[in-house]
Structure formats: structure tokens, C-alpha cells
Amino acid sequence: MTETKAKPETREFQAEVAKLLDLVVHSLYSNREIFLRELISNASDACDKLRYAALTDSKLLEEGGSDFAIHLTIDNDAKTLSISDNGIGMNHDELIANLGTIAKSGTAEFLKSVSDAKKDVNLIGQFGVGFYSAFMVADKVDVVSRKAGDKQGWIWSSTGQGAFTVGEQDSVARGAKITLHLKEDAAEFLDQHRLRQIVKTYSDHIALPVILDPVKDKEGKESEAETLNSASALWMRAKSDVTAEQYKEFYHHVGHAFDDPWLTVHFRAEGAIEYTALLFIPTQKPFDLFHPERKGHVKLYVNRVFISDQLEGLMPRYLRFVLGVVDSSDLPLNVSREILQSNPTLRKIQSGIVKRLLKDLKDRAEKPEDYKVFWDAFGAVIKEGLYEDFERRDDLLEIARFTSTTSDALISLKDYVARMKEGQEAIYYITGENAAALKASPQLEGFIAKGIEVLLLTDTIDEFWVPMVGTFDKKMFKSVAEAGNDLSKVKSADGTDEGKEEAPADEIKSLIEKLKATLGDSVADVRVSHRLTGSPVVLVADAGGMSLHLARMLKQHGEGADQATRKVLEINPKHVLIKRLEKLDGDALNDAANLLLDQARIVEGETVPDRAAFARRLSAMMERGLT
């Protein structure tokens, strides 16, 4: 290296990077050799990016050529290992942005959630740390880089202790060279045999040659340069020629992931349109799964030339958790990504890929315990497709799974319909934050008494896809809040509510009038309930209105939905409290009516609007009852 032109500038790491480095160095990996996989993977990506950029600007290849390769260089005297590539390279600002801050969506959120590094190490598989893994084995890292098309090179240097320096560097080749000053306990990574074994294990699938440069032994003799990997695109090989371990390591490469793939799909489509796809579904959900941008993670290649990993139209957004590669010879190379996104061939490729994925998911769903792993991680995202993808809605409904009031295991809609009671005409559901709270809702009492199964929908998207879909197998989806009168059509399963006498009709009518007058605008209406068996009251949305759960969600986001939702108080005419309520008047009636309303609010997960008044009324009622 030559002297830098000016004194390097010193910068502090972003706070999240400092925390990430501490996590990486002290508790992240039990297997430190992973660092080499990460750095080789990044080098491969850099070459892919330059290959694509050169399609529209061939001058970028004039200096440095188009024969892309990754080189490993051992210096036993300096105790350094270097990983270099002749890819796109980085300029001053990119070195700071890429190596000094966290740009990967979701990683910062992960770090905020880490309270105990050792306890939370199993979560690491949900994001990749890439370059920073170098500090597991090095007490200092130098990055010398020159961006393709630029004249000036730069050197980035850090010990990983909270700061880094960036300065100008002369005589820098295109691309990047990462030099690791190895720790004393990392001398094994200067051994040729060890590097050969690591590359063969983790990076054999890399489509570029990974070359071990000549190394001098103690006698001064120099070995020959050696290519350590197969250097062929893994996805282009026959399935019979690829081992499960090679698939797993390729998954780690394309996803920068640390878990194992839950599903691997490798196929070649032939006919009018030809393409090869190697796709993976993760076991763990990534932290950016619900990022507002909903970006995909499948890389598109054309004749093994990398095009993009952010291409709209290659995968629908509800399959954004899918990782992998699609390679086609039927797409044009020399067009912009924007034009490519509207290419009809790309739409046909997407259709074929999605069809294959949904077929494999349907087959895998035949193993309920195995499928539960997938559905728990990605079911909420698949449901987005029920809302967005009319063309494939029937296929998505087939692979959808739900919890219900009668089954601890996940069930399909087909299972539900097969178990419907005589006289039952609809698929009943209830929405809320969690299944345990929903099971305790008074709204379900009548359904449970008659043995009617109810789906427990706890994902935010459930409020939107259900009304959009409308029916399954000619059976309408119906909220339990709107289905109280339906219960009369179904015979009771055990006669639980039979034999209980109701208050006389004229007394109930009189009570309803008094409750309406007492509660005023606090409710939209008061009416007799057909769904309650054990509770005195329940709060439901008015017919045609949004559910109370949706209203709460919108209110939390400042949408003011609370005022738009008309709440109805339903009373149980068979309950002893309701029978006695008709005999009250004055303050006693006012206190009792408002306490019952607040009780209904609390059960539905709402807050009591006036806590002081609630406490006062409760004390007054207790005084009356204890005297």
C-alpha cells in the first residue's frame, strides 16, 4: 500500500453497529468460520452488481476486465488473510454508509429487542450481519476499495472498538480488498487446508471462482494458485447432482440467513418459456417481514447474469419471504428494470413460480405438525394474498389454516365445513388480539352451547380479507357479532341453556326502555341477546358496522374510528342479574346499568371511559349488597 494523500477522517460507528459488533464478537457464533462465507458472499454480490451495471455502461469493464473472480491471499509473516474481488467497489460515501451504519431493514429493530445476547442468540438467524462477522477473527480490518468508473481509491480501517477511519488511497484496483489482521487464537485461518475445507463446505455453489493465491512456505517455496470451489451456478445443475448440504449453504448465501430452509423448491420449466428456479422458504420469519415496503428477496438472472433482487413483478408481495434465484434465457438483458417489470414474459414466469410454490405448500400441508411451523411464521402474510390476489384466491384458501373453539390444532376451511352442524348455514368467526381472550368472549357462549365451531382470527389482515373473500364452498363467512339470531336454527348440543326461564316479556320490554334512557348516547341500542348463556350482557357492533376489534385498531392509529362505530348492548333475559335489574330505579338502576356496560367493555378489551365513576359505582353497589 502507498501512503494516503491526506490524514484519514475518523468517524463513530452508528449506535446499532456498535451494539451489533459487541454481539458478534462476544456471543453470536459458536462456529467462527462463518465469517469467510459471509465475506465471499458479499464479494460475489459485488461482482454480480458490476456485471449488471456494465450492460448499460460497458466502459465500467475497461479497467479490470470482465473475468470476475474472488481471491484469498495468505500472508503468514503479517498474519493476515485478504479477501478481494474485482466487482463494483465502493466510493467514500458508500464505505461509510455500508460499513459504518446499518442499512438492512429490520436489523435495527432486532437490536432494540435484544436484552440478553446469550439468551437471544437463537434469533440471529432472522437477519444477516455480513461484513461485521470479520471481527470475530480479526482485531483489525482494512478495506481498500475503488468503485468501477472512479479514479480515486479509498481505505476504510477499524478495530471494531467504536470508531473507524476513511482516507484516500492511491493505486487501488477496481473492486474491494478486505484484509483481516487475525487474532492470536484465529491462526487456523492462515492454513491452506482449513480454507480449502471452509470454501468447499460453505461456498462451493458460488458461480465465480474462489481462488487461493500462491502461498510461500517456511523454505520460501511458493505453491500454485488453486480454485477452491466448483464455480458453477448451483441452480443450473441437475437436482440429482446437488446435495442437501449444498442446498442449505446456497440458501445461507442468497438469504444471508442462519437458519435452515423449511422448504426447498428446485425445478426447470420448459416449453414456450424456459426458466430455472431454486427457491427457499425459511424456517424463521425475518425481521423485515412486515416492513411497509414489503420487498421481495428472489434474485433474477438472465443467462446467469444477475439483474436484480428487488424486481417488482417477479414475486407477489404476499410471498416476499421466499428466497432464491430465477434464471431465464427468454428475458432481454439490455433494458431497464422498469421496462422489465412490465414484460409479459416476466408475468408468465411469476405465474408458473407461484403455481409451483402453492402446489408444494398444499402437499406439505398434509403433514400438520410440520406445516404448523410454516403457518405460524408466515400465515399472516399468506392471508394478504387472500385480499390481493383474486386469481389465486381458491388455492390460497386451500392452504390457509386456522385455530378454532373446538380444536387446538390448526384446521383447514375444508375441515371446518365438514364439521358444520345440522342447520348451520355459515362459517362463523370472531376477530381479536389473541386466541385465549377470544375463547373467553361472551359472544361465543351460545355457539359453544350448541357445539358450533368458531374460527379465532387474530391477525390484523383478518379484518380485511374475510369481507373481501365472502364465501368458501358456497358458505358465507359471518361474524359471531352479526349471527346471534342464527343460533335458533341449530339444535343445542347438550341442552345447556334449556330450562332456564326468561324474565316476562313485558318486564324485559320495560327494562330495555329504562336502560336506553339511563345509558343514553353511551350505546346505539339495547336489545335482547340470543347468544348469551352465562353472561348477563355483551357489547357488539351494530349491524353493518365495523367490528369492535377493527374500531380499536383504527383508533390506535389515530383514525377516530371510535365515533364511527355504533355499539349495541345485548342483555341476557335468562340471567338472574337482568331479572332483578327491572326492579331497580333511580341511582341504583343508574349504577347497575353503567357497571354492566363497563363490564362488557372490559371483556371486549376496551378501556373504561371514566375510571373514577366506575370505582364509585362499584363501591355503591357493594355497600347496597352488604347491608
* CATH class identity of the largest domain: Alpha Beta
| Rg value | 32 Å
Quickly give the structural class. alpha+beta
Query: Architecture of the largest domain, CATH level 2?
Result: 2-Layer Sandwich
Q: How widely separated are the two ends?
A: 93 Å
Count of individual helical segments: 20
Looking at CATH, the homologous superfamily of the largest domain is Histidine kinase-like ATPase, C-terminal domain
Number of strands: 22
Biggest sheet features: 9 strands, mixed
Integer tally of domains: 4
Strands of the widest sheet, in order across it, are 1-6-5-4-7-3-2-8-9
Q: Strand-residue fraction?
A: 15-25%
Overall helicity: 25-40%
Rounded mean pLDDT is 85
The CATH topology of the largest domain is Heat Shock Protein 90
Can you tell me the residue ranges where pLDDT is under 50 for at least 5 consecutive residues? 103-107, 115-128
Can you describe this structure in just a few lines?
With 627 residues, the protein is α+β, with helices and mostly antiparallel strands. It is built from 20 helices and 22 strands.
Would you mind describing this structure in some detail?
By secondary structure, the protein is α+β, with helices and mostly antiparallel strands. It has four domains: 222 residues, Histidine kinase-like ATPase, C-terminal domain (Heat Shock Protein 90), CATH 3.30.565; 140 residues, Ribosomal Protein S5, domain 2, CATH 3.30.230.80; 88 residues, Rossmann fold (3-Layer(aba) Sandwich), CATH 3.40.50; 122 residues, Four Helix Bundle (Hemerythrin (Met), subunit A) (Up-down Bundle). 35% of the residues lie in helices and 19% in strands. The protein is built from 20 helices and 22 strands. The strands form four sheets. The chain has a nine-stranded mixed β-sheet with strand order 1-6-5-4-7-3-2-8-9, covered by helices on one side. A five-stranded mixed β-sheet has the order 10-11-14-12-13, with helices on both faces. Strands 15-17-16-19-18 form a five-stranded mixed β-sheet. A hairpin with a 4-residue loop joins strand 5 and strand 6. The protein is elongated. About 3% of the residues have low confidence.
